[in-house]
Design a protein that fits this description.
Largest sheet: 4 strands, mixed
Radius of gyration: 43 Å
Number of domains: 3
Structural class: alpha+beta
Number of strands: 17
Helix content: 10-25%
CATH architecture of the largest domain: 2-Layer Sandwich
Order of helices and strands: HEHEEEEEHEEEEEHEEEEEE
CATH class of the largest domain: Alpha Beta
Strand order of the largest sheet: 13-15-12-16
């Protein structure tokens, strides 16, 4: 009884070995024997690739609508194939390898930036895989924006090249030391300041006992503070009836006695 069971087990083991060996043999004969490793066509010309595929019994399909930039593969040669090369990837005879051709190195040119704002120029540089170099400003009348770039527009450059820009900006107004306006008449102060490009834009009237109408009783900025045409000057002027108004500056008039009290800063 035991010998019968042992014989059956031995028979089953031998049958399993024979089946495995037979399967391996027929797989190599029918399947692997008619397959071959995928050839490496990267870097080859189309003519060479066709010759290789013809010798191996494979078909070559070139995609005419798509090209890829490459710094390593010359333009017109194969830069990509849909089957990875090597013995680990087998192909049957008659199969097709699809390939794409190289467009050569990616050519980057500095874009046209003249007249654009620095912010717009920075966005355009980023889109071209370039970056900002040095940024300098120059005071100029007339159109504002970028007036020069280094390297100049149209120059062929490598990726991440820095582009420096010169930007035209409105001339910086002259700066002054704020004079003491207290106890001076507004009618004299305003034209004297505006003759130097300073703006008395905010005027408030308040009642103040013992002071006649039209005399400045408070000011901002305070005496000694730096001030330019970009700053708004506020004064509080005496008047019997207190009001709070915003006045428009009158046309510039010849400077009065206060003219010499506004000192230019350098």
């Amino acid at each position: 009884m035991k010998r019968g069971c042992l014989g059956n087990l031995l028979f089953a083991f031998v049958a399993l070995i024979v089946f495995g060996a037979s399967s391996y043999f027929w797989f190599n004969f029918f399947v692997k024997g008619k397959s071959l490793p995928t050839p490496n066509l990267i870097g080859r010309s189309v003519a060479d690739a066709k010759a290789i595929c013809s010798d191996l019994g494979l078909n070559l399909a070139v995609d005419p609508s798509s090209r890829r930039n490459s710094d390593k593969v010359p333009a017109g040669n194969i830069v990509w194939q849909n089957k990875e090369a090597g013995t680990a990837n087998l192909m049957k005879r008659g199969a097709t390898i699809k390939v794409e051709l190289s467009a050569g190195p990616l050519v980057l040119r500095v874009p046209e930036l003249n007249g654009q704002t620095p912010r717009t120029a920075l966005l355009r540089l980023g889109q071209q895989n370039l970056k900002l170099g040095n940024l300098a400003y120059v005071d100029l009348d007339g159109p504002q924006g970028i007036i020069a770039a280094d390297p100049p527009s149209g120059t062929v450059v490598q990726g991440q090249t820095g582009v420096s820009m010169l930007v035209a900006a409105p001339p910086t107004p002259a700066a002054y030391i704020m004079p003491d306006l207290i106890d001076h008449p507004l009618d004299e102060v305003r034209p004297a300041l505006e003759a130097r490009g300073l703006n008395v834009s905010n005027v408030k009237f308040e009642g103040y006992p013992g002071i006649r109408d039209g005399i400045i009783i408070r000011q901002f900025p305070q005496r000694g503070a730096p001030v330019s045409g970009r700053d708004a000057i506020t004064v509080v002027v005496s008047r019997q009836e207190e009001t709070s108004i915003m006045e428009q500056p009158p046309p510039p008039q010849p400077a009065g006695p206060l003219l010499g009290t506004a000192t230019t800063t350098h």
